[in-house]
Specification:
Largest sheet of chain A: 6 strands, mixed
Number of domains of chain A: 4
CATH class of the largest domain in chain A: Alpha Beta
Oligomer: homodimer
Number of helices of chain A: 8
CATH superfamily of the largest domain in chain A: MoaB/Mog-like domain
Largest interface: A-B, 107 and 107 residues
Strand content of chain A: 25-35%
Shape of chain A: elongated
């Protein structure tokens, strides 16, 4: 039953192409804006109105006709009559004519006839008489109609992950609802006779399950719906049952362990017997033993058993897949740092290299893929493409942050 | 009732000092590890055991005594007897002696006597006879005890925001629980007669409330407990009632609007009458009209009414305050970009400048603080300190990402 190697490894781009072909774009749903944080916008937001939709004062002060105030200064103040006083939210019934002014607070609608606001700091008020110590030009301290957004402008594009700023923009149009992509559902289980769930006693030769913790939390962090199937023992019947259950419940099924070359690796056989294996082994480091299969048309993605490999492959395979399903257009910000040592990489193999950031430097963390602390001690990672054989000390590299 | 200016503005460092003096460090609680994502670690994690706690195979192959294999090659293979076959999680009862080997899968405990593993790829198995085509040095493909973590090592420091990597490390020790900081509770309300909640009809001169959406979501994004008190109209009695309710329920109270200099600004009076105003006006741009007060010993922090100012002050005042309460030691990664234009700043005033990132360049987004789209169109921000008067085109600046 021992297999003699993986055969030909798929390249990362080919593996991604296959993954992408096995999932559907998720559909959209309308939800309350209050629940929108972290969700992915399902359709472009086009401004239904100008914001602001009326001229308003940018300052506390007095609405004036600018030409009335020309030449006013500390040594040559001018006087105006105060004919009304309005606050934000209140529309003055008065119309301004020459020699008059209206007291106004920040955000209040500019009265008819007014074309500027003089800040309260440059005035002195005595009953209904206002002394002004500084002139205003037309438009001074006036917020123009549509200065924030103009009616019809596309202000947020679909595929954006909504954060407080975007939700604020949607609020400014008075919308209490928003159309977002549904959350992809991902089922997950770990396999392996050697693994024991945290909280239980550890028999000789066994280790605690790490991948359940890392992968289920990585799924949650991507704001997907997690169907946590826990630990399934290395028994072909049980694995088959779990595979069938997982593909029934979720958009796709993730699992870890059981896809290397060991004698106990029922996973490969189970997928093969229930469906089809499309890729077994990807040219990435760490994490060659990746399994891509489909069962009843649904994607089954087996991540490597090593914790670092499982999580790094989640970042390079699963995150892009989720983004694809959601249509996420995430702008990648290039954090550029200098490498502190030479890194030899293998031609033909895509490499994920964990790094610590120290000021302007990227320090490779090299404890090996069996070590979960490799990732917990780093700040981000480099991706070294298939065609790069060496990165030299001092090379400037782009780092993706965790 | 109109006030003639703010008086002396507090510097940002002074304002922060006062804020910090008004909050207590939050206490810790033990929670299930499954709920730990995004929570802040409450005490250092020290490894209670070596991980791994036994020598194990890094590969699928055959456990051997390395010296038995010296000199084996493709042209000069050697033979060994296979005396057992073990998989991960299983301890072999056999002890290895010279000339023997044990079939082993990745992760399985190394048998007694063995000191190396030969990868399956370099072997040929025929019943109980193994032909090996490559020699092994002692330690080859063996994962050492404690190679991931050593018993007694501090592996995660308190104050870290737990992500999948950290949760994986904690799992590796078999812990199903973790001690985290309690989530700070923050009450929030907006004020202003001019604002209307999204979903309602918009009367003349009024605008939709943006700050409720941005600030409540910013609180949620910081993983704090939000007590959302909605919109409180500009009426001193109602504001006083809301202030008293908010400080009762939360670690501190945030509010926005009502802290500028307008005639309807009951906020300042309400805080003054119920407690004490400590700061009114901070030397930051945008967002001078910040109010810091205390009522019955609890912090009341009034953010500016302008949406961009409210949110930028949240980032420069409230986020550091939350980090202080939680003891978060967040490593700041410096994203360095070149400015595309000259920026004049005011000496004595700390400036928050929103920027879009375009490759290696930071492009200032300058639509003004009344505009919420200033932030939604940008990728991050620069902080320009009080002593900087000008940043030149081409200057390399550090950008904090949203």
């Amino acid at each position: 039953m021992t297999k003699q190697g993986f055969g030909k490894l798929a390249s990362l781009p080919d593996a991604k192409k296959i993954l992408y072909s096995l999932v559907k774009d998720v559909s959209s749903e309308e939800i309350p804006l209050d629940d929108a944080l972290g969700r992915v916008l399902g359709k472009d937001i086009t401004a239904p109105m100008d914001v602001p939709h009326f001229r308003k004062s940018a300052m506390d002060g007095f609405a004036v006709i600018a030409s009335d105030t020309f030449g006013a200064s500390q040594t040559k103040p001018l006087e105006l009559d105060i004919i009304d006083s309005i606050t934000a939210g209140v529309v003055s019934k008065k119309k301004l004519s020459s020699g008059k002014c209206i007291e106004i607070t920040t955000g209040a609608p500019l009265p008819e006839g007014a074309d500027a606001v003089i800040m309260v700091e440059y005035t002195e008020k005595e009953k209904n008489a206002l002394t002004i110590y500084k002139g205003a030009a037309p438009g001074d301290n006036v917020i123009k109609i549509g200065s924030d957004t103009k009616k019809g402008d596309t202000v947020i594009k679909k595929g954006v992950i909504l954060d407080p700023r975007h939700i604020g923009v949607i609020s400014s149009f008075g919308s209490a609802k928003v159309t977002v992509k549904k959350r992809p559902s991902i089922a997950y289980f770990s396999t392996g006779t050697e693994i024991v769930q945290p909280g239980e006693k550890l028999p000789p030769g066994k280790i605690y399950d790490i991948n359940s913790a890392t992968i289920t939390n990585a799924v949650k962090e991507q704001n997907c719906e997690l169907i946590d199937m826990g630990l399934v023992v290395d028994d072909k019947k049980k694995i088959k049952d779990a595979l069938l259950e997982g593909i029934e419940k979720a958009d796709f099924l993730l699992l870890s362990g059981g896809s290397s070359l060991g004698g106990e690796d029922f996973m490969v056989e189970a997928v093969d017997e229930l469906g089809e294996i499309l890729v077994h082994g990807i040219a990435v480091k760490p994490g060659k033993p990746v399994l891509i299969g489909k069962v009843k048309g649904t994607l089954v993605l087996g991540l490597p058993g090593y914790p670092t490999s499982a999580l790094s492959n989640f970042y390079i395979l699963v995150v892009p897949l989720i983004h694809k399903m959601l249509g996420i257009e995430k702008k990648k910000v290039n954090v550029r740092k200098k490498l502190t040592r030479k890194i030899a990489s293998t031609i033909g193999r895509y490499e994920f290299l964990a790094v610590k950031i120290d000021g302007d430097y990227a320090v490779p963390v090299m404890k090996g893929s069996s070590s979960i602390t490799t990732l917990s001690e780093s700040d981000g990672f480099l991706e070294i493409d298939e065609n790069t054989e060496v990165l030299n000390k001092g090379d400037v590299v782009g780092v993706s942050l965790f």
